[in-house]
Amino acid sequence: MNTLKIAVLGTGMMGLPMARRLAQAGHEVHVWNRTRAKAEPLAADGVSIHDSAADAVRGVDFAVSLLESGAIVGEVLFTLGVADAMPKGSLFIDMASIQPREAREHAGKLAALGVRHLDAPVSGGTLGAQAGTLAIMAGGEAADFEHALPVFAALGRATHVGPHGAGQLAKLANQMIVGITIGAVAEALLLAERGGADPAKVREAISGGFADSRILQVHGERMVKHDFAPRGRMTVQLKDMRNAIATAEEVGFDAPITGLLEQLYAEGVKNGLGDLDQAGLFVELQRRNALD
């Protein structure tokens, strides 16, 4: 295997385990995080930690972004000097979840500087990031996707879904399904509880039937155990639902189910649940039904 020089920008809940997997795969990894302390644990894996995002990307083959929003990605690229510092011909892989419009804008600006771009958001959460089993949805040129496969190999299963912005469209579809299904599972389990059934046993009974899903298994278990330690926060799920609604409006698509769930997540965040796991929508529905 060829050793690649890879920068990872953003070492939060997803970025840290992904950077670690890239280092453990034998690559030369350089990282930057706005709060340096969050990146420090990677030093034990031989990762180089930088105080400047621009310094982290100098001389790299690839830069991987795992930042919070499209606005922050744009700031890091074009205000903090990352785009100018990246070598011509290198590949910027944006694995954050942002709006498709933003991904296309970033790709165009980077192309003018001779830097290639993929939008490649992921699904699978922190567990998938740690295990290297993420689902990776990539938008951009087919040749750039092929070039990035050695990076993706350490992180999960990658699929090229179309041109620039298409990876973000796929992630929005993923997050719509996740957010809506969390709501369905939470509401169903709480209805069972209100009616006198044991929600844990109801979840067990319907597992394996048509209502089974990864959400029922993973988030449903968190609900019945009241384990809402954040893996993916309510605030992040709300951001994704809002990005989906904004994109739907741009293309003239009516998404009423997503709109309803966006309102429920927004209400939960307003009521102080923003730092809970996204399964914490269960807590908001508990409150509405006086089951808390």
From TrEMBL:
Annotated keywords: NAD, Oxidoreductase
Domain 6-phosphogluconate dehydrogenase NADP-binding: 5-159
Domain 3-hydroxyisobutyrate dehydrogenase-like NAD-binding, first and last residues per copy: 165-280
Catalytic residues in the record: K171
InterPro entries assigned to the protein according to its UniProt record, in alphabetical order: 6-PGluconate_DH-like_C_sf, 6PGD_dom2, 6PGDH_NADP-bd, HIBADH-like_NADP-bd, HIBADH-related, NAD(P)-bd_dom_sf
SUPFAM superfamilies linked to this entry: 6-phosphogluconate dehydrogenase C-terminal domain-like, NAD(P)-binding Rossmann-fold domains
Protein name: 2-hydroxy-3-oxopropionate reductase
Alphabetized Pfam families for the sequence: NAD_binding_11, NAD_binding_2
A GO molecular function held by the record: NAD binding
